Structures are given as structure tokens and as C-alpha cells.
Amino acid sequence: MTTTAPERELLRRVLPLSLPGLVVAYVAGAFVSADVAWSAVIGVAVVLANFLIHALSMAWAASVSPIALVAVGLGGFAVRLAAIFVALLLLNRLAWFSPVAFVAAVVPATVALLAFEARVLSGRLQANLWTLPSTEVRR
Predict the structure, then answer these.
(1) Distances, alpha carbon 99 to alpha carbons 32, 48, 106, 110, in Å
(2) How many domains does the chain have?
(3) 3-state secondary structure 37-76
(4) Residue 25, in any domain of the structure
(5) How many CB atoms lie within 10 A of CB 73?
(6) What pTM does this model have?
(7) What is the domain range of residue 71?
(8) Contact partners, residue 98, CB within 8 Å, separation at least 6
(9) 133 within some domain
(10) pLDDT of amino acid 8
(11) Residue 38 domain-assigned?
């Protein structure tokens, strides 16, 4: 029996939703201006890239060891959060960029992604994603 790592399964389920998320961000921002719309799209794209890096790094760390998984989970969070902040600072140098629209897109996109992740990994489905060592008794 082959199973998919839970992180890769989450990625497989989130990626089809990324294009509609980008479109919603653009349409919402377009009510103000094209610059706001593109700033919001960049915000959602940053959240999606953050999730992609998170899922792939966690899948890799899970294949190495439990200690690597914890280190990548905790350390990776700080590194990715800093990367979002640096992206905001660098993009803020552009004349057309709207930091308010960027943050206004990043926050709800992150909350929606976390809610989706919690929904996918909750209850019975979580047990289907994880492979546990056999518990058969030796005689």
C-alpha cells in the first residue's frame, strides 16, 4: 500500500484553489484601482508560495527524522514570516505598490488557508493521511 505524505496531500488539495483565490484578490482590489488589485494578488501569491515551501519542507523533514520535523516546523515558521516581512519592505519601494492592500490580502488568505488545512486534517481524514508502524504482536 502506498500513501501520500499529508503535506503533499494538502498541497494537492490547495493548488486547485489558488487560481480562484488570485482572481478574487484581483477583483476585490480592482474596486479601488489596478495598483491595489495587483498588490492584493501579490499578497495572495506570497501566501501560496509560503504554503508551498512549508508543505515541501515539512514533507522532506518528516522523511529525515522527528527532530528535523520539529526544527523545520518551528524554524521554518520564523524564516517564512521574516520572508513575508522582507517582501513587504522590498515591494513598498515600488511607487504603485499598496502595502495596505498587500496586508489586507495576506491576512485573510492565511486565515482561509489555515482553516482549510485544519478542515482537511481534522477527524477521520487525518487518520487516513498518516501511516503508522504496525502494532502486531510477536509471539
Answers:
(1) 14, 18, 10, 16
(2) 1
(3) HHHHHHHHHHHHHHHHHHHHHHHHHHHHCHHHHHHHHHHH
(4) yes
(5) 14
(6) 0.81
(7) 6-127
(8) 35, 36, 39, 40
(9) no
(10) 81
(11) yes
